[in-house]
Design goal:
Layout (H helix, E strand, L loop, with lengths): L4 H7 L1 H12 L3 H8 L4 E5 L2 H17 L3 E4 L2 H5 L10 E7 L5 H12 L3 E6 L5 H5 L2 E4 L12 H16 L6 H5 L1 H13 L3 H9 L4 E6 L4 H15 L2 E6 H4 L13 E5 L6 H13 L4 E5 L1 H7 L2 E3 L10 H18 L18
Parallel strand pairs: 1-2, 1-3, 3-4, 4-5, 6-7, 6-8, 8-9, 9-10
Length: 347
């Protein structure tokens, strides 16, 4: 099979991230203005954008001291209930900016007193037009249905949002991301473990994908990619939730993929989980987590050498490459998963 469009777009991510950061870093002052008039953040999204929002939530709460929550759009669109959103910064995320439910929910938030930000790859889209501040990513056209470069540029926009909200982080950490993603693509594709993990996953009906904290959104996004591009059952869980019962499903036919930054407070728990999985006779595949996770896993792919707060911008990349390879191994065209369209409309 020739190179997929998904693989080509994975390779376009370093430059897409460079363009996006160049375009959005000057907007931190606009965000700071809204920050002075709000006290908490409400993220509005679906699908991959919702997984990006999970990263945004952890970033905001761990580094700005603000409460951040994920919206339930059906409260606006189906129940049509009023909620007092005074003092709230509503951040709507949609790669196309055309998902009617997300646009309607942002309009609802405005009507309930929220200040508003849009994160979208669609310049001039209905979502961008509806927000007070539009952080328009510069991923370029994305033709494959599974989001890759639009997802990582959303994370870049959320990192800029965090800076505008006063996050206690170093800007140089964010500036290092594009070059590190470029390096990571090269070393992942040459990693001896990649074809081995692909072959083992091709023999099982599904997997558990787990991470915690800043890496939790990455686990959710990787699980979604496995489901939509490879048609395998994949459960994305925080390892804290996994230990509360669902770990019982991890066995010889249900391996665990574990994702972690190379530093941070959740890394020891991820390493311990890998040991528990392998001790129980199941397979654990590590992504990131440095030497500790690699040594505790059955097989492992490298992760980004990035500070924890920006690690998810690189951490998903080995997972994207793994999924693209696995789909082709299974005889599936990863560019056009069955039953899916690039823009999804929900009631």
């Amino acid at each position: 099979m020739s190179t997929s469009r998904m693989r080509a777009e994975i390779g376009e991510q370093p430059e897409a991230l460079r363009r996006t950061l160049e375009a959005l870093l000057p907007r931190t002052a606009d965000i700071a203005q809204l920050a002075r008039e709000t006290r908490q953040v409400l993220f509005i999204a679906r699908g991959s954008s919702d997984n990006a929002a999970v990263y945004g939530r952890y970033l905001v709460e761990s580094h700005t001291g603000r409460l951040a929550t994920l919206a339930a759009p059906s409260i606006a669109t189906t129940y049509k209930r009023k909620v007092d959103l005074s003092g709230v910064l509503a951040v709507a995320i949609s790669q196309s900016g055309k998902t009617e439910e997300i646009v309607e929910t942002l309009d609802w938030a405005t009507g309930n007193g929220a200040r508003t930000v849009a994160i979208t790859n669609g310049a001039g889209s209905p979502l961008a037009e509806a927000a007070e501040v539009a952080l328009v990513t510069d991923a370029g056209d994305e033709l494959a249905v599974p989001a890759t470069k639009t997802y990582t540029t959303q994370l870049a926009a959320l990192s800029v949002l965090g800076l505008g909200l006063g996050a206690d982080v170093e800007l140089d950490d964010l500036r290092a991301v594009p070059d590190e993603v470029q390096r990571l693509i090269a070393i992942t594709e040459s990693a001896p473990a990649l074809p081995e993990i692909v072959e083992e996953l091709a023999q099982v009906p599904g997997a558990v994908v787990s991470g915690r904290g800043i890496a939790f959104g990455t686990a959710l996004e990787l699980a979604l990619k496995i489901k939509e591009a490879c048609y395998l059952h994949a459960m994305g869980l925080s390892y804290a939730d996994l230990l509360h019962g669902p770990i019982a499903v991890v066995d010889a036919q249900t391996p665990a993929l574990l994702v972690a930054a190379e530093e941070g407070p959740t890394l020891p728990g991820t390493v311990a989980l890998a040991r528990r999985v392998t001790t129980a006779g199941a397979r654990a595949y590590g992504i990131g987590g440095g030497k500790g996770l690699a040594e505790s896993s059955s097989l492992a792919l490298p992760g980004p050498a990035l500070a924890e707060w920006v690690a998810p911008l690189g951490l998903i990349v080995p997972g994207q490459i793994l999924v693209e390879n696995l789909a082709r191994r299974l005889g599936i065209d990863p560019d056009v998963p069955r039953g899916l369209n690039k823009v999804t409309q929900t009631d």
